[in-house]
Specification:
Helix content: over 70%
Shape: rod-shaped
Number of strands: 0
Radius of gyration: 23 Å
Distance between the termini: 64 Å
Number of helices: 2
Strand content: under 5%
Largest sheet: none
Length: about 55
């Protein structure tokens, strides 16, 4: 299946925009996921300390 002229030009424009952008969005996503993961890990590890050791 051959790509149409519109699809080819859209792909070229997307590649040009991605080349100008750099790793900015990827770094933001990695940082956001890391922060959420750290919060969830801290909650998981610290949730047992609120209860007594007799449970």
């Amino acid at each position: 299946m051959e790509p149409t002229a519109a699809a080819t030009s859209l792909l070229a424009a997307a590649q040009a925009a991605a080349a100008d952008q750099g790793p900015g969005n990827t770094v933001r996503i990695v940082l956001a996921v890391s922060l959420v993961g750290a919060v969830l890990l801290a909650w998981f590890l610290l949730r047992g300390y609120g209860r007594g050791g007799d449970d």
